[in-house]
From TrEMBL:
Interacts with PNN. Associates with the 60S ribosomal subunit. Gene3D superfamilies: Nucleic acid-binding proteins. Transmembrane segments: none annotated. This is Zinc finger CCHC domain-containing protein 17.
Amino acid sequence: MEALPELYAIFQGEVATVTEYGAFIKIPGCRKQGLVHKTHMSSCRVDKPSEIVDVGDKVWVKLIGKEMKDDKLKLSLSMKVVNQGTGKDLDPNNISLDQDERKKRMFRDYTSQKITLEAVLNTVCKKCGCKGHFAKECFVQPGGTKYSLIPEEEEEEVAAAGYERDKKASVADDSSKKRKK
């Protein structure tokens, strides 16, 4: 087997072919070629790889992946993490490569799974003895008044009685103001 560069090694290769999805680079010292996908050609968006490189160009690349598929070794290369003028590694800790991998991952859909709050619903309050809440959330004090909801019919009657009371009080205030003058 031919001597392949180590993973994350940087070397200068020659462009063998340019396709619509990237460019194949000849690896020096062996007959293998690696693919620089158009997403790894530049940090900017590349629509046509032929606008970036031509056949025969010398480019600096970094070996970012080795994969065995159908008994063939496929090599992934990147140009965007290497300075094309000097060959210096722009991503020595491979952080941007990890971020690119995370972007590609598919996320699981958890919307179909329902969340149940059984722990809270099955509790009994130590203050009032009711189910569904904790003592620190309870508004009923021991020996205190328990509040309940008023039905809608009674609410209207209570609101009307309160309005009449307020009206009588304001009339009484007006008459007392007149007497003071």
